[in-house]
Amino acid sequence: MSTGEAIPIVGGTGALGFGLALRLAAADRPVVIGSRDSDRAEEAAKRVREQVAGAEVEGAENDDAAKRGPIVFLAVPFRAQSENLTNLKSALTDGQILVDATVPLAAAVSGKATRLLGVPQGSAAEQAQEMVPDGVTVISALHTVSAAALGSLDTELDEDVLVTGNPKEAKRRVAELIALIPGLRPVNAGALETARLVEGLTPLLISVNIRNKSHAGIKLTGLPDELW
Amino acid sequence: MSTGEAIPIVGGTGALGFGLALRLAAADRPVVIGSRDSDRAEEAAKRVREQVAGAEVEGAENDDAAKRGPIVFLAVPFRAQSENLTNLKSALTDGQILVDATVPLAAAVSGKATRLLGVPQGSAAEQAQEMVPDGVTVISALHTVSAAALGSLDTELDEDVLVTGNPKEAKRRVAELIALIPGLRPVNAGALETARLVEGLTPLLISVNIRNKSHAGIKLTGLPDELW
């Protein structure tokens, strides 16, 4: 039986979004998987329900999904981020939090996945903050977790998620959701402008993975036990 | 009794350079601490010898120091990197490796230490590669290790050092030196251009440290046991 407010995931049929939906459903939270195509969203929701007994997961079009809970995850490739944010303008409302996981990999323009594009606003997260309606807060997170690992409940996670954003209270609320997933430790990494440094971790890990045939994650050493 | 070729450290009187000298001396390697001022270099060498019985450590002016071994560490603040490299032009020779640990923090221009400057060449490491004499290879490393932790032999280290650079053999030689320090694991993080992403880890860790009152380091999860 799921409890708590529903968690919408825009782009929930992609690898990262689906993995997130699966893990949050396994943590007994109701999830709404968003997609441009409601049939594909429902198909992904069905895949979650098949893996998680009693999961309360449904599919919807992205803008419908985004209205369903106070904290909305955005898990789309960089080349689709701007279009998605434009479509969400009429759906997101004052007081909502948008958790942006976008990484501006050069792969978005047919470049290498080991390279980061320069974004005029400084980062994909700051581009998101510029595009959301007034009163919507963007928090940036989840760039370093392998989508494949997240999407396989058999894989034990043991890594950190660096969370950036401006109001600490919004960051803390997002951290609470991330901490529902066993093996993920959310870490306050600073203001939203610091998202540009965190987004750079993804191409860096891809570069490490190419050299070491790995699926590396990040863990910070030397942090206190009590983080939030 | 120290063994192996001497390890020159340009800027070895600074916090990071001194910590490195101390740890390499403790690993029984001969070290030459470089400074603009040979008296200050000798004073730092004396401090190492006081802490490490039998240490073979001496002080010299930077350009003299740089001639003393095949792998030269450059541990200076970004605002002094270019001047140092200009001074080293007549000292470095074909076949040497320069290990650049420079981070272009905005603090170099009185900005915040949580912000990274844009460097025209892409990174401080690539600026170094542009400035060294032909035949000298720049390898980038050591951006995420706390200078304070390195400089205190009582502090147990347990973290990764991301190493970038172009010829893998040069990276491997630098990795061998780093691996002499107990608790540091060198990881091949890719080509020299990836240094721009690694250099961004320093302001990111500073941002984390401010929020969490910590001295964080980085560790990658999911890597194979055999790395080089």
Question: Which structural traits does this protein have?
Answer:
228 residues, alpha/beta, six-stranded parallel beta sheet, 9 helices, 9 strands, 36% helix
Would you spell out the secondary-structure blueprint of this structure?
The structure is a homodimer of 228-residue chains.
Chain A: E1 7-10, H1 15-26, E2 31-35, H2 38-51, E3 57-61, H3 62-66, E4 71-74, H4 78-88, E5 97-100, H5 124-131, E6 137-140, H6 147-150, E7 159-164, H7 168-178, E8 184-190, H8 195-199, H9 201-212, E9 217-221
Parallel strand pairs in A: 1-2, 1-4, 2-3, 4-5, 5-6, 7-8
Q: What is the global morphology of chain A?
A: globular
Let me know the largest β-sheet of chain A.
6 strands, parallel
What's the N-to-C terminus distance of chain A?
28 Å
Helix content of chain A: 25-40%
Name the quaternary structure.
homodimer
What is the ordering of alpha helices and beta strands of chain A? EHEHEHEHEHEHEHEHHE
**Strand coverage percent of chain A:** 15-25%
Mean pLDDT metric of chain A: 97
Low-pLDDT segments of chain A: none
Largest interface comes to: A-B, 41 and 41 residues
For the secondary structure, the number of strands of chain A is: 9
Given helix and strand content, the structural type of chain A is: alpha/beta
Tell me about this structure.
The structure is a homodimer of 228-residue chains. Chain A has 228 residues and is of the alpha/beta class. Chain A is built from nine helices and nine strands. The first copy, chain A, has helices spanning 15-26, 38-51, 62-66, 78-88, 124-131, 147-150, 168-178, 195-199, 201-212, and strands spanning 7-10, 31-35, 57-61, 71-74, 97-100, 137-140, 159-164, 184-190, 217-221. In chain A, helix 2 (38-51) links the parallel strand 2 (31-35) and strand 3 (57-61). The mean pLDDT of chain A is 97. At the A-B interface, strand 8, helix 8, helix 9 and strand 9 of A face strand 8, helix 8, helix 9 and strand 9 of B. Strand 9 (217-221) of chain A pairs antiparallel with strand 9 of chain B, so a sheet runs across the interface.
